[in-house]
């Protein structure tokens, strides 16, 4: 059991550390290409929780609570329009949804390449978040806070 405050103060995730096939039940903390809204917790708590989950093994399968993948990828494209991994993932997710299939589960490796909420250290993500907030952002936490505010209005 991993404490992941942010969405709510008492939010938890379940991680199964199987060496060949680890998996994570992430609840409303980590979504495919996104993260949960902040209802009780702070942006800093959610940032820390997401960093904790992002440090899990790359092959960890992520089972999140909702199928928001396409919506989240539209936002990811707005943040990083030149990221080819996002474009490829959006095309694949679109094909799956058009066929009435789910896009889940995801995995940590894919999220690290395409989820803007896990990419607050990336120069392009920081530049997009700074442009959106119309001010320089001096830390990954500040970038995350701006991304979450942007997504809330997206």
Strand residue percentage: 5-15%
CATH topology-level name: Metallo-beta-lactamase, Chain A
How do the helices and strands follow one another from N- to C-terminus? EEEEEHEHHEHHH
Q: In which range does the helix fraction lie?
A: 40-55%
- State the separation between the terminal residues, measured CA to CA: 32 Å
Spatially, the strands of the biggest sheet line up as 1-2-3-6-7
Gross morphology: globular
| Fourth-tier CATH superfamily name | Ribonuclease Z/Hydroxyacylglutathione hydrolase-like
- DSSP, total strands: 7
How many helices? The count is 6
Indicate the CATH class: Alpha Beta
Q: What number is the mean pLDDT?
A: 97
Based on CA atoms alone, the radius of gyration comes out at: 15 Å
Tell me the number of structural domains. Answer: 1
Describe this structure in words.
By secondary structure, the protein is α+β, with helices and mostly antiparallel strands. The protein has a single domain (2-153), classed as Ribonuclease Z/Hydroxyacylglutathione hydrolase-like (Metallo-beta-lactamase, Chain A, 4-Layer Sandwich), CATH 3.60.15.10. It is 45% helix and 14% strand. It has helices spanning 43-54, 69-79, 84-98, 108-114, 123-133, 140-153; strands spanning 2-3, 12-16, 23-27, 30-31, 34-35, 61-64, 106-107. It has a five-stranded mixed sheet with strand order 1-2-3-6-7. Strand 2 (12-16) and strand 3 form a beta hairpin. Helix 2 runs antiparallel to helix 3 (84-98) and helix 5 (123-133) packs across helix 6 (140-153). The protein is globular, with a radius of gyration of 15 Å.
